[in-house]
Write a structure and sequence with these properties.
2 domains, Diaminopimelate Epimerase, Chain A, domain 1, 17-stranded mixed β-sheet
Length: about 290
Amino acid sequence: MNTTAPLSALAGRRFRKMHGLGNDFVVLDARAEPLALSAAEIALLADRHLGIGCDQLIVIEPGDGAAQAFMRIYNADSSEVSACGNATRCVGRILMEESGADDATLRTRAGLLRTSRAADGRITADMGPARLDWEEIPLATPCDTLRVPFTLGPLTNPVAVSMGNPHAVFFVPDVAAVDVAGLGRAVETDAMFPEKTNVEFVEDLGHGRLRMRVWERGVGITQACGSGACATLVAAARRGITGREGTVVLDGGELDIAWAENGHVLMTGSATLAYEGTLGELETGK
């Protein structure tokens, strides 16, 4: 029996479809008109068959004295998360275009994040400090986050990093040979990671270049993960594989990452507006 339920409360809402290297977002602006979304509405908007389709749904909310806006982030499974590097660049672009300035600050659940225009037209986001203590990731038991005592099949001893969200970075000899979906899903939900984790599989290409594929917590395989690229460079620098600057090569393109001496991680990459539109009456089809 078809029990189709229209979600007409969203009808007439303007949206932007944006992406950072293929990591894509539906962006809703709730600064002038507040927006309360149910889990069903979030999942429907993210659905690539019944909705618009995205890895994350982004809601721009009013800012405060320190930030022009607050960025709220929902994964495709409707879970709310604290950080998203590629979305930070996209929202930073929106705010800079509105103000005409070359920088913008937004607030997230992970804190204040500052964005600026790079000389080549890309966007740089200061993702704040990398957090390296086991309690900050968080992990289930005390350990050295440089080599977490964790093994799953061919994977062993990841580097754990928090960029406001948890990451487990595995260095592998050939990233193309890794079962990203199977292993990523298993690592994400392992008891070692009480808040689940993003999972990065990384191959050293030499000369400061790192090839990364990612399984995103609450989403799955994505074309890119900005916070994951930041975590990857930090992990590589801690292992002595690279220096404190490098390029992370993702399925969707490249991000330049710098781990500054003050601990902050700077990420530079594209922020693309694909199209804009108006929502109609979405239906669950269930």
